[in-house]
Amino acid sequence: MASSYTQNYKLCQWEAEDKVLRTEFNADNAKIDAAIKAVDRRVDGKASTTSVNSLKSTVDSLSQTVAGHTSALSGKGNCQLYATSYLGAGGCGANNQNSLTFPHKPFAVFLISGNYVISLFQGVTSTRGTGSSYLHSAWSGNTLRWYSSSDSDQLNQKGVRYSVFALLEL
């Protein structure tokens, strides 16, 4: 029989002369199992709520963007689809911007990294990045420049290949 117990969960602590009882050992395992399950439930609940809120925010933002650009797109006529990629060089911030120059003026640019797609639209200078920071963009003729507060949010991690899809004005 255990002669002492742990402070938090009252798990058995046996001294050398104590007899280890199977029932005490099984009771300790049941306490540990219940404690781990309680933590799992809390983590799953928080992850689920956070994920749903994040997705809802993203969908709401995209919905507003699409609604705001629908009339502009209808007046543009034909556009050219353009695809390319670039290799991240590492670095971030206003002094280390990414830049792409297109054959024609881009109206919409989609930067793609794994499961992340960042949508940039002509005239919009700030959008939610892949993390919690914002991606800032500047448009000049056929050139798009962008930056963020981290190389991962800026889609500029060294050695990572990023895909680009764009709608170009004709």
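Second entry:
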Amino acid sequence: MVGEPPDGPPWPVEFLADLHAGLYPDNPDLLGRVYADPEACRVLESLEQVADDLRRLGRPPLGD
């Protein structure tokens, strides 16, 4: 299990990767704070693009 989420922003990239991977339970307050940060949104969009690219190549990301 992962620890407590950080107080951000700025949000550590490692935390955003864990969040993207589904390691944190759904938490509307936390998600609202993360998605309110444009830099965090850019990182999450980049992570999703990498995951999409891996799926297209037939190599699903870990956790899929």
